[in-house]
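Look over what follows to help learners.
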Amino acid sequence: MNSLVVECPFIKSVLLDIGADWNRTAQVIEELGVFDCLVNNAAVAICTPFFGIKPEQFDEMFNINVKAVINITQAVAKGMIQAGKKGSIVNLSSQASKAALKNHLIYCGTKGALDAISRVMALELAPHGIRVNCVNPTVVLTDMGREHWTGEKAEEMLNKIPLRRFAEVYEVVNTILFLLSDAAPIVNAVSLPIDGGFLAC
């Protein structure tokens, strides 16, 4: 959060535990005013073999990856509707919603759920002029992505991507900006892969 403020001093940042306190999160979001657009980007991934999964891992991932998205989107969309403002919402999903990834059982489940709830949001918010879409990237080369996707693990994934590379951050950002913008006025309820062809294999 501190790095974001340094990079973009005109941005107002707030620190919230969005997976723990439904009411406080909604209150803070509503107090920020009316939004033109929303990107739900927060997520957590705990990679565990099937037989090692614990209930607290399930709760943590679904609370942040699914429940918090519903909560925040409710607060933002409510403000848009009350202000008579049209807008666009993009939810950060994953190729994991479309394909099974070893040791990602709960994560795959949360992203599949996110795709589904995004379609329902799109259906119900469209009459108010609010579009809702998902992007579904492959591995993205953030600092965390570079740290965790190395060696044999990375090579196994790259072998499934026809373009033989992972996504750069700006490639995901540019796709999100397109979906948020007036260049995509009729694009609604889609789950858009950014995966170099991973899902074609």
About this structure: DSSP finds seven helices and four strands in the chain. Strands lie at 37-40, 87-92, 130-137, 191-194. The longest helix spans residues 55-82.
